[in-house]
Specification:
The protein has one helix spanning 103-111; strands at 2-8, 11-19, 39-47, 50-51, 60-65, 71-77, 84-85, 90-97. With 112 residues, it is mainly beta. The protein has a 6-stranded mixed β-sheet with strand order 1-2-3-8-5-6, covered by helices on one side. It has a two-stranded antiparallel ribbon with strand order 4-7. The longest helix has 9 residues, at 103-111. It is globular and about 35 Å long.
Amino acid sequence: MKKVSFTHNGRKFYLEAEECKRANWGLGLMFKTRKTSPLIFNFNKKVDWTLTSLFVFFPFLALWLDDKNNVVEMRVVKPFTFGIISKKPFYRLLEIPINGKNRELVKIIVDS
């Protein structure tokens, strides 16, 4: 697990996330259970990739981060959604499963 910090609307947030290695970038939360840990994808360069939640069986919060870990876009993603696109390029992606452990954090982030 890796400590991750990010800023949204001037407020700093912290959580622990599993780093998703390059070999698993295409899978992310696919085929995992709702109880899984948040995932952080570090692309180390500006990208504008399209995501999918095919074979993700629960909703999650997607946070697209810039090179300074500021949220450039966020969206609650529903299961089995094809073609999830950020309007802005990003350097990192944080996927936070909406589950009992993360529900309060997700609510605070979305409401801020």
